[in-house]
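re: that chain from earlier
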Amino acid sequence: MTFALLTSPLPLARFSNEFPVEVMFFVFFGVLAVAFHIWMIVDCATREPDQGNTKVIWLLVILLAPLGSLIYFFARKLQRASLPPPPGPRFRP
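^ sequence. v structure.
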């Protein structure tokens, strides 16, 4: 019985040189998720106004909530993108 298990093609397929498509799928989307998370942290740290504790609260939401970066993206980033720029001096080269 052990000889039959050692000679079956199933264990050999596990050690082949092919990288499973499922693993590539999860690695690809995992890298995208981490990149999006880092992008939202940087966006919040650089563009969120310092009025009150809003920046600190949003950073905590992004870092501690499982879907915090998506919450920040839909609640703040899209809202800021639709607003007109604030009045004041602008840098024009």
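The two ends are 80 Å apart (CA to CA).
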